[in-house]
């Protein structure tokens, strides 16, 4: 009997694919059980954390609207990882543990396609953040007029659409999708560091210019460009970018080794195991936002306090009413009447 009834789907899980069932089945089931447990924890923490960030960011006053939109886009991708990709990843592993061959390939292809889509959105958004920070330094006083919320949102929508088209292209032509993906990743790896390098060099030049004018007794440069505040925002965005790169590095290294050595059992295992670090990024990002952005941290704490109060009153109210009713029922009627008479006096 054929392993898969749908040939158009099963072609993605053939011997040359990293999803090949016969190879993945050879790994220890203990690994898959461990991965399911870890990913379940990451899924819950990612979902709860990013929901709090999405609720709190609209109240955050310290961030400029374009920066809010960029962090909002990252939080949305992380939320979708928590509520969609990780449950699919767990289901994908469960089909191997339980040997559910009829569902294996469909779930695996769906999981990989959605994972590629959200990963590409995250990567391109990180590059957009670096470009936005470069524009803020380059334009300075003209930044707020040139880089508007509408412009940033339009860019983000275009990036989400492009990521969806690329993910679909991988289904129709894996070679074309792989080539375009490699070119895009290479471009991102060049653009983002280049932006931060130019910014760092520009800040040094700006500080040197100010010091030279002060040493020569010249008047200070009069502009409204808040360099300390810009540096703080730049550090925050670099932390966000650095965390994503750190979480993706094991997976990218495993892919690089696979490219050199080919798809062996060891390289397939390395790719599967390293994806845990990728998904860990979606759970760590909310913690990073709260650590680096004080205003956002305060808003998140307010949301947590409000939710806890709602849950407390929701749980406490029926219990309190029941206790009050029991106390009233246990008091004899004569005493109740006496009590009311004393109150009237």
Explain this structure to me?
The chain is mostly helical and 345 residues long. It is built from 12 helices and no strands. Helix 9 (227-261) runs antiparallel to helix 10 (265-292). The N and C termini lie far apart (92 Å). The model is unreliable at 1-9 and 334-345 (pLDDT under 50).
Which residues sit in consecutive blocks of at least 5 with pLDDT less than 50?
Answer: 1-9, 334-345
**Cα-atom Rg, whole angstroms?**
27 Å
Q: What kind of sheet is the major sheet? A: none
Q: Output mean pLDDT.
A: 80
Supply the helix-strand structural class: mainly alpha
**Cα separation of the termini:** 92 Å
What order do the helices and strands follow? Answer: HHHHHHHHHHHH
Output the number of helix runs: 12
Task: Report a brief summary of the structure.
By secondary structure, the chain is mainly alpha-helical. Helix content is 84%, strand content 0%. It is globular and about 75 Å long.
